[in-house]
Amino acid sequence: MASGEPLNFYAVRLRNRLVTFLSRAQSKGKAELEQEVESARASAMAQGERLHASADAKKDELSTSWDQLQRSWLGVLTKFL
User: Fold this and answer.
1) Would you give the DSSP letter of residue 3?
2) How many domains does the chain have?
3) Is 78 helix (H, G, I), strand (E, B) or coil?
4) d(CA 45, CA 52)
5) Tens of pLDDT along 30-44?
């Protein structure tokens, strides 16, 4: 999966949720709407935290892989020098 694909997936998913939310909002009272807004905010914050944790994990993975690649190339180069 390309690096931009997960972001596109979440953008489309967010847009669909917003469209659904707005269509429901037209028929609900203010109190119900405020409660749903708070729930949506909490859900979005939780999803953001999960994405952040996932990105941190991938960053650590990538850093480790890059370090291993550098060490490998250093080993190859020292044989020729």
Assistant:
1) T
2) 1
3) helix
4) 10
5) 778 788 889 989 998
pTM: 0.44
Task: Round to whole Å and give the CA distance between 46 and 50.
Answer: 6
Tens of pLDDT, residue by residue over 30-81, are: 778 788 889 989 998 999 899 888 888 888 777 788 888 888 888 888 887 7
Radius of gyration of the chain (CA): 22
| DSSP structural state of residue 26 | T
In 3-state terms, what secondary structure has residue 32? helix
Residue 11: how many other CB atoms lie within 10 Å:
11
Residue pair 33/25 in contact (Cβ under 8 Å)? The answer is yes
